[in-house]
Structure formats: structure tokens, C-alpha cells
Design brief:
By secondary structure, this protein is α/β, with parallel strands linked by helices. The protein contains 13 helices and 9 strands. A 6-stranded parallel beta sheet has the order 4-5-6-7-8-9. The protein has a 3-stranded parallel beta sheet with strand order 1-2-3. Strand 6, helix 8 and strand 7 form a beta-alpha-beta unit. The radius of gyration is 18 Å and the shape is globular. 44% of the residues are buried. It binds zinc ion. Zinc ion (ZN) binds next to loops.
């Protein structure tokens, strides 16, 4: 799947752009460590994972915009204490110099988390990223009570990697998320990777909680299907949740060309309307990105509307 495929898909669907809610931009030394980890196929990954878009930051931005991506995120995630506030200061700066990036922030269960999350919200954060597998913490940790309360009140979405793929962690799976939503039922969680491999359980959670959304990051690609195949029995629910599923890619840390992730959605045969909503309209609504640009194919900066 090459760039022409992506441009052709956008034209055919009449998309003003793609909104990719799951992309990684982070401080260079951190990105390099992440890439080293993928290269080593470490225990949290469990398989060879050759990264396709290992370029310098400005090149990566150009590549992403070249696909017609209108808005994207800069997902960072701490794996230890005393890291999140620093990452958040980097992402705030990145968003300030990258107008098409949705200002992203993160947190970790630690004293002071409430303070820096409040500061992130005051600073205009549009989305949070939480990685339960890499962070190895219970999302219900009491040190996060204030954080979840603030985020629920603000109504800001949280992309959360909480499924047990690619390898399980101590706190991954649907249980801790159910417990969290019992306490904070209005949280706008976006379940990353459709909750892989616990697809059915996370779709159940979405069915029970109207505010819960899901992202398609890496789902349905050949790479992902070979390890954690999405069950055919759940295709009807993919259609039913057509207003609550958002496209994400994991760019740049993917072992295949970007277009393959979009083609993987197209070949589900859920229809052009479904694709339009998943690749653009749902995220435009959730993030208040306003009216699409009238010039298909051109990227337009994220406005502050
Ligand atoms: Zn990711």
C-alpha cells in the first residue's frame, strides 16, 4: 500500500483529511530508546517489529502530512515516576510549534500527579495517553483518584492501552477498566487497539458506557491479525459502534506502510460511510475540530474553536 493508495482513498471518500488520534512524537532520546526496545523485540513486544518510519522528527511530520493527515497526537507514556511532568512540558512545546497536533499529555500514579494534570488541562491539553502495560500500574491506583476526577470533569478523552496485547501485564485486561468506570462512569476513555486481544470484553464495556470510545490502532492489519485476530463474530458490533470508533495508526512505530492500516479498514467492507466516520468525522466531533477544510487533500491546522 503506497501513498497513492492513501490519496486515492481520501478522494474516493471525499475526505477533507484523515484524523489519526494515535501517533507518537516524543523527545528524541526517548524515541530512540523506544526504537531500541522494538529492535530488541523485548518482552513487552514479543516479536520482531521492524519500524517503517524511523526518521528525524521534521521528516516524520512531513510524511504524516503527506498522507493527508489533518490532525494527529503526540503520545508519550512514562514507565516510571518523575517522568510524566517532563514529558508533558515537551508535548506542550511540541503542540505549540506544531499547529496540526492535538496537544497531548500523560500521567503516572505518583504524588503530584493531580497538580501536573491540572496544569496540563489549564495549558490546553486536548487528549491524554495512558499505557497500562508499559507503565505497569493499576489504573485504579488511589494516587490517580484526583487525576481521574479532574479529567472526567474536563471531559477530555484519554487514549488508554489497557488490553493484554501484544503481551499481558499485571494490570491489563477489562477488569481494572470496569472497576475504574464504576467510580468514574463519565470518563471518555478511548480503548486503544480495540482492546486487543480482549475485543469482546471491551466492546461489552463500550456497550455499557456511552462515553467510551475505541481506536483501531494496528487492528486488522496482516501483522496484527496474525497474532491477535479480531473475531468475525464481532463484525456486527463494529458496524453498530460506527460513531464511536476512531482511526489510529501508531505512526511512526509500525512495521508496515501507513496505507496498509487504512486498507485494513477498507477491506472490512463496512461501507464508505463507516470509513468516513472512523477516519475523520468521529474524531472531528470528539475533538471539536469544526468544519472540514473545503479543499480535499490539503491539511489544515487544528483550529482553536
Ligand atoms: Zn501506540
Amino acid at each position: 500500500m503506497n501513498d497513492d493508495y492513501v490519496a486515492g482513498l481520501r478522494t474516493r471518500l471525499g475526505l477533507p483529511g484523515i484524523i489519526d488520534i494515535h501517533t507518537h512524537f516524543m523527545p528524541e532520546p526517548v524515541m530512540r530508546k523506544v526504537w531500541d526496545y522494538f529492535d530488541s523485540a523485548g518482552p513487552l513486544i514479543g516479536r520482531a517489529w521492524p519500524i517503517e518510519y524511523r526518521d528525524e522528527e521534521q521528516v516524520r511530520l512531513k510524511t504524516l502530512r503527506g498522507f493527508g493527515v489533518r490532525a494527529f497526537t503526540s503520545m508519550v507514556y512514562p514507565h516510571k515516576p518523575d517522568m510524566a511532568a517532563w514529558l508533558n512540558s515537551w508535548t506542550a512545546d511540541f503542540a505549540a510549534r506544531t499547529p496540526d497536533c492535538l496537544h497531548t499529555a500523560t500521567f503516572y500514579p505518583e504524588p503530584g500527579a493531580g497538580e501536573y494534570v491540572r496544569a496540563a488541562l489549564d495549558g490546553g491539553t486536548r487528549v491524554f495517553k495512558v499505557h497500562v502495560q508499559v507503565g505497569q500500574f493499576d489504573p485504579g491506583d488511589p494516587l490517580l483518584d484526583e487525576v481521574w476526577g479532574l479529567i472526567q470533569e474536563a471531559g477530555v478523552p484519554v487514549v488508554i492501552h489497557c488490553g493484554s496485547g501484544p503481551t499481558p501485564g499485571k494490570f491489563t485486561g477489562p477488569g481494572p477498566i470496569r472497576a475504574l468506570l464504576r467510580r468514574f462512569p463519565r470518563l471518555r476513555l478511548i480503548i486503544a487497539h480495540l482492546g486487543a486481544p480482549e475485543y469482546t470484553e471491551f466492546l461489552d464495556i463500550a456497550a455499557e458506557h456511552d462515553a467510551v470510545l475505541l481506536d483501531t490502532t494496528m487492528n486488522f492489519t496482516d501483522f496484527f491479525e496474525s497474532a491477535d485476530p479480531f473475531p468475525a463474530s464481532e463484525y456486527p458490533r463494529l458496524r453498530d459502534f460506527g460513531d464511536r470508533i476512531l482511526f489510529g495508526s501508531d505512526f511512526p512505530n509500525i512495521p508496515y506502510p501507513y496505507g496498509h492500516a487504512l486498507h485494513a479498514l477498507e477491506r472490512l467492507n463496512l461501507g464508505d460511510d463507516w470509513l468516513r466516520r472512523v477516519c475523520h468525522d468521529n474524531a472531528a466531533r470528539v475533538f471539536g475540530l469544526g468544519q472540514p477544510s473545503p479543499h480535499p487533500g490539503k491539511t489544515s491546522p487544528v483550529s482553536s474553536d
